[in-house]
């Protein structure tokens, strides 16, 4: 599907690097098929040295070469960037924007000919366990969607959705690894508190969340049912869960997702 094709990234930061690492690890593309542009020269040199990809200092040149072009810059940089590359990009190039809050209509206005797809991935794409949600723009047909989905399927799970769900997706799975790292760090600290060595505690915390997540995905059971199977009557787990409920862990997570979703909405309104 990608033979003799170039995939370009404008913006070589955290999410671009995670995608590049995951796509190369999956063997979907060769390093020579990946082109990267970043305003930061050190970043270009780092990505070239670390992954064998080709760094291109001129974003217009990169845009003209790419068959699929990822926009992996901060949301406020997207529109000025599109003004810069609009004349250089070929009309058949599929544009994939991962920018939080930036609407398909705004992207399509700046690039009046290209098929555009808005995606919200997350950083676990770097290890093949990403969660990416794709929304097709008005000029994207199923073939464009399938091509973009093939890239994201190689680095994790993929769901197609309407754009109206993107802010909610951003608040949950886009930002979610951040919440999960805080939870793992907090659990690891807790383990240290009760006497475990730090490294062992981090391993226990991370593997426990990974195992629990895998059980939800593989059994298809409701998480509450799986929780019930851990909570022996009068036992340790229910004593711990009681404290979590008392301290409002559920409400805190609910508010975290709601506030992040709202932030994504606000970013979409900014001009
Ligand atoms: N980090 C994450 O977990 C996720 C990020 N995103 C989205 O990805 C985008 C990038 O986020 P991060 O990678 O976290 O940010 P970042 O700050 O790590 O990367 C942005 C990169 O763009 C470069 N840059 C700035 N202006 C540029 C320009 N005009 N041309 C070329 N390069 C330029 C910067 O030097 C930097 O290396 C954002 O729009 C964000 O909403 C989406 C999903 C997850
Ligand atoms: O924090 C952010 O704005 C980006 C979007 C989702 C994850 N990181």
How would you describe this protein?
This protein is of the alpha/beta class and 271 residues long. The chain has 2 domains: 7-163, 3-Layer(aba) Sandwich (Rossmann fold), CATH 3.40.50; 175-268, ProC C-terminal domain-like fold, CATH 1.10.3730. It has 12 helices and 8 strands. It has helices spanning 14-25, 41-51, 59-65, 75-85, 104-110, 142-153, 166-174, 176-193, 198-219, 223-230, 236-246, 249-269; strands at residues 7-10, 34-37, 54-55, 68-71, 94-97, 116-120, 130-136, 156-160. Strands 3-2-1-4-5-6-7-8 form an 8-stranded mixed sheet, sandwiched between helices. α7 packs across α12 and α8 (176-193) crosses α9. The longest helix is centred in the last third of the chain and has 22 residues, at 198-219. The two termini are 37 Å apart. The mean pLDDT is 97.
Q: Compute the gyration radius: what is it? A: 21 Å
What CATH calls the topology of the largest domain is Rossmann fold
- Percent of residues in helices comes to 40-55%
Percent range for β-strand residues = 5-15%
Which series of helices and strands comes N to C? EHEHEHEHEHEEHEHHHHHH
Count of all domains: 2
CATH C-level category of the largest domain: Alpha Beta
Q: List the ligand species.
A: 1,4-dihydronicotinamide adenine dinucleotide, (2S)-3,4-dihydro-2H-pyrrole-2-carboxylic acid
Q: What's the number of extended β-strand segments?
A: 8
Tell me the name of the CATH homologous superfamily of the largest domain.
NAD(P)-binding Rossmann-like Domain
The 3D shape can be described as: elongated
- Give unreliable regions as ranges: none
Note the gap between the termini.
37 Å
Strand order of the largest sheet: 3-2-1-4-5-6-7-8
Largest sheet: 8 strands, mixed
- Count of DSSP-assigned helices: 12
> Structural class of the secondary elements?
alpha/beta
Mean pLDDT: 97
């Amino acid at each position: 599907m990608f033979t003799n094709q170039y995939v370009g990234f404008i913006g070589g930061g955290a999410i671009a690097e995670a995608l590049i690492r995951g796509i190369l690890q999956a063997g979907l593309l060769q390093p020579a098929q990946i082109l990267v542009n970043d305003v930061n020269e050190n970043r270009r040199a780092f990505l070239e040295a670390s992954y064998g990809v080709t760094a291109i200092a001129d974003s217009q040149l990169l845009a003209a070469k790419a068959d699929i072009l990822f926009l992996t810059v901060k949301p406020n940089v997207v529109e000025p960037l599109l003004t810069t590359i609009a004349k250089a990009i070929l009309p058949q190039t599929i544009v994939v924007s991962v920018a939080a809050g930036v609407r398909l209509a705004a992207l399509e206005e700046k690039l009046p000919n290209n098929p555009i797809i808005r995606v919200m991935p997350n950083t676990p794409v770097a290890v093949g366990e990403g969660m990416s949600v794709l929304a097709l723009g008005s000029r994207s047909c199923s073939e464009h969607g399938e091509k973009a989905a093939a890239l994201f399927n190689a680095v994790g799970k993929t769901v197609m959705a309407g754009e109206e769900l993107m802010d909610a997706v951003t608040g949950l799975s886009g930002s979610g690894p951040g919440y999960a790292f805080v939870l793992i760090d907090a659990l690891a600290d807790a383990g240290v508190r009760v006497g475990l060595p730090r490294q062992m505690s981090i391993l226990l915390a991370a593997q426990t969340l990974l195992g629990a997540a895998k059980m939800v995905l593989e059994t298809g059971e409701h998480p509450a049912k799986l929780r019930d199977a851990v909570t022996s009557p009068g036992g340790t787990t229910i004593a711990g869960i009681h404290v979590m409920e008392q301290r409002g862990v559920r409400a805190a997570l609910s508010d975290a997702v709601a506030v992040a979703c709202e932030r994504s909405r606000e970013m979409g309104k900014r001009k």
